[in-house]
């Protein structure tokens, strides 16, 4: 419980104390928007690293060399709220996560999310969903990577190899922009918090960035079901990690 309280206090303290910084970032964005985005990302990464340290967890990164020097679509499995923290502290460049629209309810937090290029998805409104995809495509063209969790929600299965079905439409950003897909297999994050709420415990977390998938190089059937194809790739990566841990 102490770890949970420390993380909560640090998070709330940051959100409250960062209000003047947010105002400064808005003014800076008028002069150099990219520099402002990079600075905001650095601030958020530092905050997330601190929160992970407070849990006592260790993060191992595999496959950074697989990420090309261009904007990509990261596609990962989703077990924990800490997946986002681990993703943000390990990505090599500007990246925005796709989050549910409900996050807009939280002032300051949603402002920081916008500053680090998060996109907000209304899962009940197809028209708004298409707007989000178009914004994701535009971000990729600007050199900003996008990160999605195509399961749509956290998988709560005890089996680490079980993933919910991937929503095919969520990968349209890669299909329409032509950017590579980077499959991401994350293990150990649910052991920090979700498996024993409300306690936080140290965990050995691994985030594995797989080899890029180019949709235009796939067979026609694979392209039609690229979500299912990518899901199978991530499951194989999770099996590899399970074998390493055995």
Q: Which fold name is given in CATH as the topology?
A: Glycerol-3-phosphate (1)-acyltransferase
Describe the largest sheet.
7 strands, mixed
Secondary structure tally, helices: 9
Shape: globular
Poorly predicted runs are: none
User: What is the first-to-last residue Cα distance?
Assistant: 29 Å
Report the mean per-residue pLDDT as an integer: 92
Topology as a string of helices (H) and strands (E) = HHHEEHEHEHEHEEHH
Indicate the proportion of strand residues.
5-15%
Number of strands: 7
Q: Strands of the biggest beta sheet: in what spatial order?
A: 1-7-6-2-5-3-4
* Residues in helices, as a percent range: 40-55%
Do you know the CATH architecture? 3-Layer(aba) Sandwich
By CATH's scheme, which homologous superfamily applies? Glycerol-3-phosphate (1)-acyltransferase
Q: Please, how many domains?
A: 1
Please give the radius of gyration in angstroms.
18 Å
Question: What distinguishing features does this structure have?
Answer:
globular; Glycerol-3-phosphate (1)-acyltransferase; 246 residues
């Amino acid at each position: 419980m102490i770890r949970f309280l420390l993380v909560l206090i640090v998070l709330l303290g940051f959100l409250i104390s960062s209000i003047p910084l947010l105002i400064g970032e808005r003014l800076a964005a008028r002069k150099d928007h990219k520099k402002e985005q990079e600075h905001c990302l650095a601030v958020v990464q530092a905050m997330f690293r601190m929160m992970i340290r407070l849990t006592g967890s260790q993060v191992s990164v595999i496959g950074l060399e697989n990420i090309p020097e261009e904007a990509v679509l990261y596609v990962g499995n989703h077990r924990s709220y800490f997946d986002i923290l681990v993703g943000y502290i390990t990505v090599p460049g500007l990246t925005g996560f796709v989050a549910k629209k409900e996050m807009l309810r939280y002032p300051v937090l949603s402002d920081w999310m916008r500053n680090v290029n998060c996109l907000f998805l209304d899962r009940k409104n197809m028209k708004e969903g298409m707007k989000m995809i178009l914004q994701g495509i535009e971000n990729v063209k600007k050199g900003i990577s996008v990160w999605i969790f195509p399961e749509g929600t956290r998988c709560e299965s005890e089996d680490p190899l079980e993933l919910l079905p991937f929503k095919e439409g969520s990968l349209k950003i890669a299909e329409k922009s032509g950017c590579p897909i980077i499959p991401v297999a994350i293990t150990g994050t649910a052991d920090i918090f979700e498996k024993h709420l409300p306690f936080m415990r140290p965990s050995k977390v691994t985030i594995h960035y797989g080899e890029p998938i180019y949709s235009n190089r796939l067979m026609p059937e694979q392209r039609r079901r690229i979500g299912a194809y990518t899901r199978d790739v991530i499951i194989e990566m999770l099996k590899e990690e399970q074998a390493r841990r055995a």
